[in-house]
Description:
five-stranded antiparallel sheet; 15 helices
Amino acid sequence: MPTHPYADGDPTAVQTPHTTVPQPPSTPASPATPTRPLTAAPEPPGQGHRAHPPQHGPARIGPYEVFQLLGEGGMGRVYLARSPGSRLVALKVIRPEYAEAPNFRGRFRREAESARRVSGFFTPPVLDADADAPQPWLATAYVPAPSLHDVVRGFGVLSEAGLRALGAGLAEALPAIHDAGIVHRDLKPGNVLVTEDGPRVIDFGISSAVDATQVTRTGAVMGTPGFMAPEQIVSSRDAGPAADIFSLGCVLVYAATGRGPFGSGGTAEILYRAVHHPPQLDGVPALLTELIGACLDKDPARRPTAADVLAALGAADPAALLVPGLRDDLARRRAHADVLVSAPPVPAASLVASADSFDTATRGRPSRRRFLWLAAAGTTVAAGGGAAALAGWRPAPGTDRARDGGSSGSGSGSAGSTGRSAPKVPAGPAPRWSVPLKKLSSPQLQLLGDVLVHWEQRRATAYGTADGKERWEGELRLPSGVSGTPTWLGVGGSTLFASVWSGERGLLFGLDATGRQKFTHTVTESKAGALSADFVESLLSVAGPVAVVGTSGHKGYGVAAVDLGSGEVLWSRKVNGSDFQAYADGDRCFLQDNGTLRGLGLRSGDERWKVGNVIEPGAYPRLSTDGKTLLVASTKVQAFRAADGKKLWTAVNETTSVGAARVHGARAYLYDSPGTVFALDMRDGEQVWHRASPVHLTSPGGAHDQGPAASSAVLAIPTWATGDVPGFIVLRRSDGKPLWAHQPAGDGAGAGGKSSWLLQLTGDMLYAASDTTLHAFRSDTT
């Protein structure tokens, strides 16, 4: 099933707040870098979200009967619900931190009233809203259609006729929104639905209220890198209707080429290119290049109006949007909606409880009420397949299907009219030591020998594991004739990697645990006919003396293997877009390239095996291995034999995302979006145990997601505790029992900010970094 559009996250580009315009790279231009889900909300955050049953979620919100959680993102959660008059709605519930912000409810109320005045064929109507609810919500008519992102990823780019139909629909939708006094501010492929009779623009009802709240609270700007106008990046207060025209141009480029006009990769690079560089229009039909280029003018005063765009596009046929395969997809979605509209009402008090109940007489099998709920919610049932609904069922969180007995646990509570209160977890020990951290915008924490490296793209600092004292700041000695700003790539093996792009060369650098520079290797060079050398944009994996890196340039993306001793580029190959990962182990390199999984020789690059259609479009999997078995984790965990690619087993087959699998010994550990942690036997995929976390876990995924931190005794996972204050929980590795949790009580001492904690485990020590502070804990407290 394609990813669902009714959520903030959009895999095309990550929605993150930004406080300043990025500083320019030291070189005149920087090539595009591959898309990576940088969720913090990232995003995933944001990434696309799949519909799934509410896990201890609300049975009713206002007058609406809730069926499914469609998705969640930076602004809040979106549910599929039904009105008392049997009308399906998409119900967006705002996150608590926005609702609690000063003046937010007033802004939300005004925006909702304005949104209800929006009328037009290409905008679903806003039906209802409640700014005074504990968590404010807004209901819009539900449209059973995929997003433009899903259409392009699943069925291919649009033809010129399809682009004209898309542009015409958007150019009609925007004036309807602007005439109500609203600027969308987040027009992107994930916020455009594609129906049989044209596009529909969604999520125009609350963007300004949330944006204003972000500006008031943090001086930040909300939007999606790659689809934001320059004036919105510099200052959201200057973003008027012309900013939406700029976004319209970006959306058309994506629909024509499958990528944004300003490349992808690091947020800073994308934003800088949007402000300072011309758009990349390669692949856009020639007859539309001039119009789209005008929409993407840096000066808002020079951009065409929506009426100008509509006139330039001429007559458009909405049927041109229906690329092969889309009609069948739309038919399945309509059938699903028809089932939900006609389903009998479920009593509010029993709706959520039934989602995790069992018949007492038939323990281990779903109750009749549970089966009826699945039948109402499952798209496959609407098409006539009852068995497929049961395939998505698993025991209630806290029960065990595995060989070695059960573990007990309760699901965590959430906002709504029903739900269970979360059990308390013992507080953790006092830290052995705590030291202040330098403020970084998108930090990571990794162990490198006897130091902890706290890094982002532009800065890396090492702290001693024994006492937390700063040991060194990452610095590079550049070769003669090379200038450029280092980009830190992270730790692999015994090395901290960085890259520098000089225009003519892309270089890879390595530092050891003392901060000493180990090597300087040229990985890419400009060739005849090329504008510049490719950029070494990411460290994908390291196995012994070989590093596998990601590259990007004006001709696309690639992967290269580098011998770290000699600096020789052992092999390089282009990939089919920005959705790729690589994992090296032993003498093999595993490459996931837009749904195709390949086994390569690590030093030769020779293809030993290939498996197609491993993931659905937009799934953004993570790879891990124990040397014998390769795991691919997306919405399920698939295992392949490392030697020949033979499919071995599938486990945790979810309707929502699961995070990276952390392999430790003979087991793999991972967790899913609803908050269940799993231990899988690497031999056959059987669940050794699974446990519903008693506190809310952070959403899995993200560019640097490597799964739970693990040692021989415990697992550690970041959490969102009461009031959405981040912390972390420590579980016993043998059976998943919660041992203790670090849950700051608020924004005061110890809270350490609003970002997810960064965790590293080694031996009996747990190192945890908040926004502001690095701590060391004994991890084996029981």
